[in-house]
Write a structure and sequence with these properties.
The chain is 30% helix and 27% strand. With 324 residues, the protein is an alpha+beta fold. The protein is elongated. The structure holds biotinyl-5-AMP.
Length: 324
């Protein structure tokens, strides 16, 4: 019942709803409505109540619950179904478990991950309420070898979404987003596929929003939106990223158009024009980055002065001295 009342208030989009209207709709007394409203307030919602007008939501709590996310999102594919956890191992792991049984666009959100993952078994620090830990389930009709482009779509969406909120960031190809040379966000794209057919793609996005203290092992390379001086809410950032993602992804799938995404990746690249180290297994090579191809691959001049294309997923990039 509490949830039904909350949804009525959220649906009204910041307008008043009278206690009478709610009690008639749900067949409960106005006193019962009032009691539920008290509980909704306890959850962190700010609700204004005015005699003869009723109730109106003034502010939602800082949570990424399905009600709050749906209330803010204006997408038509992403987030129509949302699975939400207060705490989970990894949203990507959960997404892969349920992927074949759910609709494309389903998203998994957690307030905390206790086994958050980066690429190749690395760990991802995901403290409760500090960031955005989300996985998007997609079912694109593309070949498995094309799927790495989806990481570029995620990167472009994050940069563009942050820009809309006044935050400048850069993409450290293939899957890091950086501000002031430190990592604020990482992308982990995983596939469920047969040789020539994709069953699903899970795109995991982790973004540090409110973190102030990072653990010793990531301290020197990590930052958060708040640490960089921006006082933004997680929900506003998530909304912008998902809306951008949907736009760029639909353009790719429906129109086979990758140009805008690649333009964003190139214009906001942290490494094009720079010398970097390419790490692959135990191998470490110093190369110069010169471009990103229309498929999202990185073009480099290698140590033998020969042009080469790198595919995301197989390499990590490090700067001359440090992380960038
Ligand atoms: C990534 O891997 O950057 C991908 C991170 C993806 C996280 C999301 S959260 C939702 C979804 N569910 C998951 O389980 N994962 C995804 P990679 O490029 O391999 O970077 C990993 C490295 O980043 C680690 O080895 C650390 O050095 C560093 N790191 C760990 N936690 C960090 C954090 N919170 N902020 C910045 N750097 C971090």
């Amino acid at each position: 019942m509490r949830e039904k009342i909350l949804n009525i208030l959220l649906d009204k989009n910041k307008e008043f709803v009278s206690g009478e209207e709610i009690s008639e709709k749900l067949g409960i007394t106005r006193t019962a409505v009032w009691k539920h409203i008290k509980n909704i307030k306890k959850q962190g919602y700010e609700i204004e109540s005015v005699t003869k007008k009723g109730y109106k939501i003034v502010k939602c709590p800082d949570l990424l619950t399905p009600e709050i996310v749906k209330y803010n999102l204006s997408t038509s594919l992403l987030g129509k179904e949302i699975v939400y956890f207060d705490s989970i191992g990894s949203t990507n792991d959960y997404a892969k478990e349920i992927a074949k049984d759910v609709k494309e666009g389903t998203i998994i959100i957690a307030e905390e991950q206790v086994k958050g993952r980066g690429r190749m078994g690395k760990y991802w620090h995901s403290i409760k309420g500090d960031g955005i830990w989300v996985s998007i389930i997609l079912k694109p009709d593309i070949y498995p070898y094309e799927a790495s482009f989806i990481t570029q779509i995620a990167g472009a969406s994050i940069v563009k979404g942050l820009k809309k909120l006044g935050v400048d960031s850069l993409i450290k190809w293939p899957n890091d987003i950086i501000i002031n040379n430190k990592k604020v966000s990482g992308i982990l794209t995983e596939l469920g596929a047969e040789i020539d057919r994709i069953n699903y793609v899970v795109v995991g996005i982790g973004m540090n929003v409110k973190t102030i203290d990072f653990p010793e092992n990531v301290k020197s390379m990590a930052t958060s939106i708040r640490k960089e001086g921006y006082n933004l809410e997680r929900i506003d950032i998530l909304k912008e990223i998902l809306e951008e993602f949907e736009r760029l992804y639909s353009n790719y799938i429906e129109n086979k158009d990758k140009t805008e995404c690649i333009e964003i990746c190139k214009q906001n690249s942290a490494i094009i024009g720079k010398y970097v180290y390419v790490l692959k297994g135990d191998e470490k090579r110093k190369v110069k980055c010169i471009d990103i191809t229309e498929n999202g691959n990185l073009v480099i001049i290698n140590d033998n002065n020969v042009k080469e294309e790198l595919i995301s997923g197989e390499v990590s990039i490090r700067g001359d001295k440090n992380y960038v």
